[in-house]
Amino acid sequence: MRLNSYDDFTPLKEVVLGSAVNYAERLRDLSFDMFISDNVSGARGYYASITDWRPGEDRKKRNEPQRLAMKERFLDELIEDVEGIAAALKSLGLTVHRPMRLAPEATEMSAPGWSAPVTPPLNVRDNTLILGDEIIETPPTLRARYFETQFLKPVFMRYFEQGARWTTMPRPMMTDASFDPANEDAAPNIEAPLDPQASPYDVGVEIMIDGANCLRLGRDLIVNISNANHALACDWLERHLEGRFRVHRMHKLTQSHIDSVVIPLRPGTLLVRSEGVLDYLPEPLRKWDIIVPPAPTVSDYPQYENDTPIPASPYIDLNLLSIDEQTVMVNDACKTLIATLENKGFTVVPVRHRHRRLFGGGFHCFTLDTVRTGGAEDYLG
Question: Per the structure, how many domains does the chain have?
Fold first, then answer.
């Protein structure tokens, strides 16, 4: 089918599902710490804050790159679960596209001013934004994910050959000076760089944002802005989409991604982390019905050793995938969320995904909708 995706809830026909094959290392650097700070702050009892991940005096060096090997058992189980997600999607009659797999020898990439291990295309939602008949590759916010969309090129090329538009936003240099933690729109609990280093490749604060910062509602795009990087990206989106989509700015809801915070399940119904989320949304959305599930508990998740960085929010199970306006795919371990949604009349498809906190992604993160039946509707009118 031709590319057509305007929302996250009308009947899904085709989807891209990520791959975790040969996920070898995680890079802890300035970009990683800034990216996950909002997820971790205030989550005591779930796991330590990022400043606790380095012992003692090493915390003062938290912006220095640190490579952490992924534990083989967890990776094997992740790969098994991703393939289970693929089987579940196909059983629902969906066409499932897959990215190219990361080759085992592709372990390192370099750019002017920095280097990083290569990350496989697992969370394919993050670096791509599908708006109607257009693929927009977004400028990455994590250095280790700089070339991630390259693994999706065969999928994108097929849609392009069928008539899709295909755009890449400006690629950032991603030196320390590229990141803005001090903007007036910054989330209050961001981990500011302690000692950003000058580089001959500095160009100042740059355009950087993830597709998962955005909420798609027909002809409307709601963009979460928490720093000057996001604001510049929103400037670009407004100019690029003028006349086709209405872009709405939403400030400080989270430090980055919003798809574990506010999830439109169908026109008129939102799943939200808490009632306080409504204060950040455009006025028309505040009138929608909301579903607030019980807060997660520690027992909802696998527990790990104290030295294991866990980047995902404790609300990661809200990161569900809508198959249509009545059917949702939910982690089978999240019994309270399943019960809440079933009590609201939804059909729940439970699927296993064990290490969602550890690898930082749920079903929405792992997938990229490419064909849904909906169009450029006015849901905010």
Answer: 1
